[in-house]
Amino acid sequence: MTAHLDIKSAQKFYKKYKAVDNVNLSIKKGEFVTILGPSGSGKTTLLKLIAGFEELNDGAIFLDGQDITKKKAYDRNIGMVFQNYALFPHMTVFDNIAYPLRLRNVMKANIKEHVIRALQTVRLEEFASRYPNQLSGGQQQRVALARAIVFNPPLLLLDEPLGALDKNLRHQMQYEIKHIQQSLGITTVNVTHDQEEALTMSDRICVMNKGRIEQIDTPERLYNFPKSKFVSAFIGEINLLQCELIHLEAGMAVVKLNDGQVAKVRVEQSDVAVQTAALIAIRPENIHVVRDGAVFTNMHELTVLEKTYVGESFRIEGTTKTRERLTIKLPYASSREIAVGDEIRIGWNAHEASLVPDEVTVQNDTADIRGAAKIS
User: Fold this and answer.
1) Rounded CA separation 299/291 (Å)
2) Picking from 45-49, 104-108, 154-158, 211-215, which range would have the lowest pLDDT averaged per residue?
3) Which of 178, 193, 230, 344 is deepest in the core (most CB within 10 A)?
């Protein structure tokens, strides 16, 4: 399928600083793509370039086959929802939603029909005569969404649309926005630093770091098969075990761990050269306690250092014989008897982990990842 939004070799500089560095991104019609990354990764700048609020230094942007690179923001006909909603406080809900139609000189007789349809889409028909300060945060957010879609734009941009909402309402609105987007079939680009939001709402996720795209993939593949140390650490919680790649065989990487033990990890294509340092990335929920003679592809001894109750499961921190820290998540019912100080045997299978290059990560990257995790 031909790309509906096509960004080619996009670059944006602020003096010598590269905010967006040679970004290529193609989005299909009706697709919901989230641009995810920590502060300073370039995600918001990329959204502004698409919207026309910033100008490219190099590259091009095509929308539905037309080059919009040089077009001003008001000529691109793109719908946008801002984090602070940007509603006009002196206008009613009806007039806020009607505003972009009046700007486009839509006939007065047709405006009411379009606004009512948009209100029905966001389930706010009864609130047409109210003012923004008479609405809850979630209702204001839906008004902003209705205003962005009322003129049937070819593209919808969402700039941290749920950032101002509390956690419970944020979860509810994730599903509402996704449902509306699917029902309209509108191509949507969402920007956020919230990993859970991205995983819940997106068809694909584009992870950015230092102005570049680290990985573009479906939520499931991004979570289970990260391609870099940055992506594995930024998306969810991860264990990283140091190893050396010995050789590749039939879709499997054979690696040697720090304790000399040989382990196997499934790989589709490896970005790691043989006989070089690598990292095994394993999610805490993919590490199991070995019981009743169960056999896993890879097994280790773990000393339990901490045990924390987190509702449906226990979060257990432990250390291997080579002093590497591991976090595992175990179902509540099957792990109540495990105590701090216990020596337990753990196992994981080759298909439950991925292999990433052990690239050098500077202090600033680590700070960005930790900061984003705290914000989320």
Assistant:
1) 12
2) 104-108
3) 230
Domain ranges for the chain: 5-224, 229-375
Q: Which residues pair with 288 in a beta bridge?
A: 347
Per-residue pLDDT tens for 219-252?
A: 999 998 898 999 998 998 999 999 999 998 878 8
Residue position matching structure tokens 């946008």: 80
At 19 the three-state DSSP class reads: strand
The SS3 of residue 213 is: strand
Amino acid at 307: K
CATH code at 229-375:
2.40.50.100
Q: Can you read off the two tokens belonging to residue 222?
A: 């991004």
Q: What is the model's pTM?
A: 0.87
DSSP string, 218-273: -HHHHHHS-SSHHHHHHSS--EEEEEEEEEEETTEEEEEETTS-EEEEE-SS--S-
For residue 13, CA distances in Å to 21, 46, 69, 232 come to 8, 12, 16, 28
Quick one: 5-224 is in which CATH superfamily? P-loop containing nucleotide triphosphate hydrolases (3.40.50.300)
In tens, the pLDDT along 263-297 reads 999 887 667 778 888 999 999 999 999 988 888 99
pLDDT of 260 above 50: yes
Q: Which residue has the tokens 């690239």?
A: 359
Nearest to 30 by CA among 62, 60, 64: 64
pLDDT on residue 270? 66
| Per-residue CA distances from 4 to 62, 234, 302 (Å) | 8, 28, 50
Q: Is the dihedral of CA 243, 216, 232, 182 positive or negative?
A: negative
pLDDT surpassing 90 at residue 362: no
Separation in Å, CA 81 to CA 131, 146, 240, 323, 338: 18, 9, 37, 48, 48
Q: Which amino acid is at 115?
A: V
